[in-house]
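Q: Got a minute? One more chain.
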Amino acid sequence: MSEQILRIGCHLSSSKGFLNMAKTAKSIGANTFQFFTRNPRGGATKDWQEADILAMLAFFEEEGIAKPLAHAPYVLNCCAKDEGLREFALQTMREDLQKLERIPQAMYNFHPGSHVQQGSEVGIALIAEQLNRILTPEQSTIVLLETMAGKGSEVGRSFEELRAIIDKVEMSDKLGICLDTCHVWDAGYDIVGQLDRVLEELDACIGLERLKAIHLNDSMNGCGSHKDRHEKIGQGHIGMDAFAHIINHPKLKHLPFYLETPNELEGYQAEISLLRGVFEG
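A: Always. Here it is, folded:
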């Protein structure tokens, strides 16, 4: 059996194009990356140039880069109380998914939304309704529901809430999960002392086959704090030993890992090197 590789990258700016992102990833020792499909705090987007995408895909082939993860902008709220905001989210996601069909292996991650005092059941129903309008039989891009920390009225603070969304989506084969280490820790899942138990819960509730990506982030706060404050790897309450366990876990090590820590490129490069140093292959 060939040695397992660590598929790891970080969040990169897409402002200078796709080929530039791929080259930047390579320069810091990454073999994947995450990017926003458009302005993360707004709806603005640029045209995606076909020549740039083709050049990136050729670079992927040459350098062994794969599984780029597209992230929807933070402002989208699929379960907003305001119908106009929900329609904005729908149109944005629909447009993003149409564009992502040009990038093989790409996945699309989004924050499920905040129910804004409507209650989680209403929020879950609205998110599923949106997905039922967005997903198409012919699409190849897998859409990932991100695990959330549970601050405010966020939906997705538990595996059960994510399962409830999936159960209401007609084309649920197009859905997966992105597990964020900071978020699940802040939501109350002890991935430091009871990682196996957490994965058993995830498997029983959702199914580990739906887990497609992991956001690697330490946390500034304790387990169950519901704060969502990311910290650099090994410098928060989760700690380096736990991250070494996560990336080497037999049920997780085959997945792509994406850093969203508070870093610039130099810091990401150091973290990638640090994690590669404890990866057992």
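A: The radius of gyration is 18 Å.
Q: Perfect, thanks.
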